[in-house]
Amino acid sequence: MSMVVILKIWTHKISATVGLLVIILVLLWPAFPLRSLDIWLQTLVSKFPTNVLYPIFAILMGSYAALYTYDRKVAKCCRVDATKATAAPSILGILLGACPACIPVLAFFLPLSITIAIGYYSWMILLASIGLILFSIWRAGGFQKI
Description:
Helices cover 71% and strands 0% of the residues. By secondary structure, it is mostly helical. The chain has one domain. It starts with a helix and ends in a 7-residue tail after the last helix. The relative contact order is 0.19. The mean pLDDT is 77.
C-alpha cells in the first residue's frame, strides 16, 4: 500500500514532535500580544473566516516543519533536488494580519489606513498564505507517494 509523504512524516516521533510544537506555537502565540489566552480565544471564535482558516494555517505550518525535519533528520536523502526552507508563507500569514491579534501590533509600525486595509482583507492574506504553504509542501515533495 502506498502512502503520501505528508502522512508518513506524522508516524515518526521526531518529525511529529516538531510538527505538533509548531502547531501549538502558531495557535497560541497571538495570546502574547493580547496578553491573555482568554481574549485570544474570544477573538478567534468571533471572527468568521479567520476561525476556520487560522487553524488550517497552523496545521499546514506544522506539517511543513515536520516535513522539513523528516527530510533533514529522518530520511537523509531528499526526494527533491534541493529542499529550501521558505519563510514567505509564515511571514505573510502571521505578521500581515492573519490573526486578529497581529493587527494592533502592526498599527504600531504602519499608518492607520494600511492597518485598516490589512484588518479588512486579512482573510485574503490568510488564504494566500495557505496557498503558499501548500505550494511549499508540494515543492518539497510532501504529496508524492512512497
